[in-house]
């Protein structure tokens, strides 16, 4: 560097140069440090490239912090069908193979929008998504306690009151959904009549005709057993157990959250050991919940 010069007069001598260091606006006194110490050096703020890099870093920081991470699930069924839209009326345009993964983007009622490993985006039903698993192998679970859950869920439990062949009936049932329209059911009830008491148990299938409706009709078919205990008269009649078969139908009405009403009718045929079989009508109404 050149030493400070005055605007007039001769240039400063060598001794004068050391004397004016610290007073000259073009110079700063060197910051000497002792042995074993380091001297900090800072980059000048006037560097254009450094300013541009700093600006880009500040702009990229919010974008990185706001980057969304989507849940990844894996297909465990033979395949996962992707529809072009959130409804059964939209065609299936892509299939995800077993053990491949998809990212869950968002949910709309009982449909999930997902993205495959190759970037294909489509819609999967809630029922199909219930059969996927997380990366650790645990089932993919989500809240179905709403209207969409009424359309597609796995389990139902409920209690009824009604009549069985003219006798007062109290019963309970459980149901496991095989798909969105077909379920296996088990019911047990006890009836108290004027001439006999008994216990009845049924196992069968229930088919939902239109599962997405709030008022959803269904059909039933199955078999069961009945245990009869006639009331005593002058001669005590024998107790007996008979096999039965039934057909029936009913309707479900969604209330709120996980609860719904269910009304049903069954026509039973009791296969007796006599020459003629008996026919018994069953009517009942009750509350149920799903999960």
Description:
- Helix content is 12%, strand content 47%.
- The chain has four helices and 14 strands.
- It has helices at 14-20, 48-65, 126-129, 147-151, and strands at 71-74, 79-83, 92-97, 101-108, 111-116, 121-125, 155-164, 167-177, 182-192, 196-208, 215-230, 240-256, 259-271, 278-290.
- An eight-stranded antiparallel barrel has the order 7-8-9-10-11-12-13-14. A four-stranded antiparallel beta sheet has the order 1-4-5-6. A two-stranded antiparallel ribbon has the order 2-3.
- A hairpin with a 2-residue loop joins strand 4 (101-108) and strand 5.
- It is elongated, with a radius of gyration of 40 Å.
Shape: elongated
Strand content is over 45%
Low-confidence residue ranges: 1-7, 17-45
Number of helices: 4
Radius of gyration: 40 Å
- Secondary-structure content class: mainly beta
Q: Within the CATH hierarchy, at the fold level, what is the topology of the largest domain? A: Porin
Q: In which order are the strands of the major sheet placed?
A: 7-8-9-10-11-12-13-14
Largest β sheet strand count, sense and barrel closure: 8 strands, antiparallel, barrel
The second-level CATH architecture of the largest domain is Beta Barrel
Helix content: 10-25%
Number of strands: 14
> What is the CATH C-level name of the largest domain?
Mainly Beta
- How many domain regions? 2
């Amino acid at each position: 560097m050149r030493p400070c010069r005055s605007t007039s007069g001769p240039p400063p001598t060598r001794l004068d140069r050391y004397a004016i260091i610290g007073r000259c606006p073009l110079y700063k006194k060197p910051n000497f440090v002792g042995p074993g110490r380091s001297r900090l050096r800072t980059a000048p703020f006037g560097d254009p490239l450094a300013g541009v890099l700093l600006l880009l870093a500040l702009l990229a920081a919010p974008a990185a912090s706001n980057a969304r991470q989507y849940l990844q699930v894996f297909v465990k069924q033979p395949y996962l069908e992707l529809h072009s839209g959130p409804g059964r009326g939209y065609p299936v345009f892509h299939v995800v193979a077993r053990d491949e993964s998809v990212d869950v983007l968002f949910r709309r009622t009982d449909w999930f929008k997902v993205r495959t490993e190759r970037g294909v985006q489509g819609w999967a039903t809630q029922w199909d998504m219930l059969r996927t698993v997380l990366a650790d192998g645990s089932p993919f679970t989500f809240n179905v306690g709403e209207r969409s859950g009424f359309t597609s869920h796995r389990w139902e439990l409920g209690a009824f009151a009604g009549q069985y062949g003219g006798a007062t009936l109290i019963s309970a049932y459980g149901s496991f959904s095989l798909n969105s329209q077909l379920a296996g059911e088990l019911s047990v009830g006890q009836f108290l009549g004027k001439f006999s008491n008994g216990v009845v148990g049924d196992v069968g299938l229930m088919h939902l005709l239109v599962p997405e409706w709030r008022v959803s009709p269904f059909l039933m078919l199955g078999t069961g057993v009945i245990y009869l205990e006639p009331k005593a008269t002058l001669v005590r009649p024998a107790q007996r157990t008979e096999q039965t078969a039934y057909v029936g139908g009913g309707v479900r009405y969604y209330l709120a959250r996980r609860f719904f009403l269910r009304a049903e009718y069954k026509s039973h045929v009791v296969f007796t050991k006599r020459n003629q079989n008996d026919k018994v009508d069953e009517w009942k109404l009750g509350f149920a919940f799903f999960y």
